[in-house]
Design brief:
With 235 residues, the chain is an alpha+beta fold. It contains six helices and 18 strands. The structure holds manganese (II) ion.
Amino acid sequence: MSAAFIFPPPLSPSVAIAHDARRFPVRRIFCIALNYAAHAREMGKEPAKGGGGEPPVFFAKPADAVVESGATIPYPSLTNDLHHEIELVVALSRGGADIPAGQALDCVFGYAAGIDLTRRDLQTAARNAGRPWDMSKGFDHSAPIGAIRPVAEIGHPACGGISLSVNGVLRQTGDLSDLIWSVPEIIAALSRNVALAPGDLIFTGTPSGVGPLLPGDLVEGEVERVGSVTVSIGK
Ligand code: MN
């Protein structure tokens, strides 16, 4: 007989899958920092060269930070500078440790458009103080994500436009071909830090044009041939 829980364990957070009634259960959410040169420069950083030589910086959000596309989320607490970051999200159905880049794409179930919401003022303050910036990234409702498109449907997009608009005004544009670390390189590097597993999501970084959101804003992101994600900020 299995041990009883003292209260019902929380349901697994999950993400919609395009053209499929089933859902993708989320285990962990990983993110990579500064993966487009133009965004690194707008953050005041020299872009990394990427590739296998230089390790990227990773951070995480809690699995239950996922938000269904189309939802309205509250303007988060403790910030006056909530920023949008449109990103290609990789959804894994296989995992492992020390995955070679040449085998990394075998782990990918599909791709989605996601928004890495950021309390930029908290991140900057933490960074300047040499403190962890978890709470600037891993807050409630900080990971809106659109429906996952399976690899079986769209393959592995290595190029294509990525963009975000706020209230119909274009804010961010880029191309997946500008990723400093490619998806296979990201998976390989991340799997040297931690063992990956089915259900893991990886936000692959944002192009330039990040900026503030205000209560009442409508945020619409798109990744070409992958899909879209929409979220409204509550008033
Ligand atoms: Mn990001």
